[in-house]
Amino acid sequence: MPLSFVSVARLALASVVRDEAARFGYTCRSLAELTGMSSATVNRCMMGKRDISEYELGAFGAAFGWGGETRDRVRRLWVTSVTGAGEVQHRDEVLACLHAMTRESVVVAPWVLPARLRTSGYHCLLTGRLTRLEDRRPWEAGQHTTVYLTRQAVTMPSALPAHQRAEQFAYLGTLAGSEHVRLRFLPGQITGVHGLEPFEVVRLRNATRYVRLDHHGVTTLLDNPGDVRAYRKVLDYLDSVATPSSEWRNWLREH
């Protein structure tokens, strides 16, 4: 079953509450005492396991001293988490919060470099559009991404000028040496598993896992445990056939 935008917004709101608690040094117990809630309720709110009521939002705001722009921003997020209103207007804001909650992601993009690994020249040639902020978010401390792709994903844009190709290879080389990113080559002839259409398996800080599918400009999030298990089995298979990460660095240096 797809994870609704309302559910995603609830997780994003939970991340705001959790980060604010960390900023003030509050534990669940101390925050519960300040807000008049039980520790169990505070914990579930911070983990995105339940909706936050309007009263509870006000109590958190008082504890954290929210005012002005911060109060308005959090309230917009709350309205979206409860009703789905403002999905289009606040999409980037919600996705930014979800990104901040991500601990680990595994991306399968066999034939085309995922947006986050592209230089602006590659991205513009491929899509005809400028790179969006969503596609250029930096990796934060403690975040890790594994990417499975074929060599064709790097070399396919034959129209890419030589200097832009060199720029793209240099960027991938930088990423390959990063502690946040691990690149794995897949055999070019690999077929058969879900047609190897692109997908991403994401694990959040609260241990929630979901699958992200992007198809013809539409993003679908699946958090059903059965769906997640099916795609993780695909990852197990790809891990068994992919070449070691070290081969990436050698191949990029040679090209």
In short:
With 255 residues, the chain is α/β, with parallel strands linked by helices. It has helices at 5-24, 28-35, 39-46, 54-64, 68-83, 91-101, 120-127, 151-155, 162-176, 225-241, 246-254, and strands at residues 102-108, 144-149, 181-185, 199-204, 209-215, 218-222.
What does it look like?
This protein is of the alpha/beta class. 50% of the residues lie in helices and 14% in strands. It is built from eleven helices and six strands. A six-stranded mixed beta sheet has the order 3-2-1-4-5-6. A hairpin with a 4-residue loop joins strand 4 and strand 5. Helix 1 (5-24) crosses helix 6 (91-101), helix 2 packs across helix 3 and helix 9 runs antiparallel to helix 11 (246-254). The longest helix has 20 residues, at 5-24. The chain is elongated. The model has no long low-confidence stretch (mean pLDDT 79).
